[in-house]
Design a protein that fits this description.
Number of domains: 1
Distance between the termini: 18 Å
Radius of gyration: 16 Å
Order of helices and strands: HEEHEHEEHEEH
Number of strands: 7
CATH architecture: 3-Layer(aba) Sandwich
Largest sheet: 5 strands, parallel
CATH class: Alpha Beta
Strand order of the largest sheet: 4-3-5-6-7
Strand content: 15-25%
Length: about 190
């Protein structure tokens, strides 16, 4: 989706020192210092699958949630480029489950930036039977996730690159003019 150098420069392949059994199939190797390195070709393959999938959705059918500070700018730029609804900062319980709530939404799919930080959104999505896609690092639990995207979901540049790619592909598929640079996302 982008040159290999772009992935490596953004650090999209850098995991944590902890790994779960759920994520072990996406780990290329563990460095001598214990840091897990994710498989870049699998990341690229999963991003293609994700892009193809969300390209079939309308802007009201997808919700992106990101509580992590390092991803807020990227997610907001994704919203600006595509018009897809995003929630940054604190997720309010009931957003997906309580029709009487002012901020209630009914997406078909939710994209969660970090299953640990965004665990309340994950819980609401499970209660609403919404398809769940999640960006997962080497230390994440992938129970109840329908589509796992292995990546560094903690780094600003990594999240910027991911949301840049997804926004560019979405705009291309929906014939929306895409006037943004990668630097604007990170």
């Amino acid at each position: 989706m982008v040159p290999l150098e772009a992935y490596l420069t953004a650090g999209i392949h850098i995991g944590t020192k902890h790994k779960t059994n759920f994520m072990s199939k996406y780990i290329y190797k563990v460095r001598p210092d214990g840091l897990c390195i994710l498989n870049v070709s699998q990341i690229n393959e999963r991003l293609k699958i994700l892009a193809d999938f969300i390209n079939k959705l309308g802007p009201d059918e997808l919700l992106i949630v990101c509580r992590r500070e390092n991803g807020r700018k990227a997610v907001k730029m994704f919203n600006k480029a595509t018009g897809i609804k995003v929630m940054t900062g604190r997720y309010l319980p009931g957003t997906l489950t309580n029709p009487n709530f002012d901020n209630y939404v009914e997406p078909k799919v939710i994209l969660i930036t970090d299953v640990w930080y965004d665990k309340q959104a994950l819980k609401d999505a499970l209660n609403s039977n919404i398809m769940i896609i999640a960006l997962c690092d080497s230390n994440n639990n992938t129970n109840n996730i329908d589509l796992v995207i292995p990546c560094n979901n903690k780094g600003r540049k990594s999240l910027g690159l991911i949301y840049f790619i997804l926004a560019r592909e979405y705009c291309k598929a929906h014939k929306i003019k895409f006037l943004y640079e990668l630097e604007q996302f990170s």
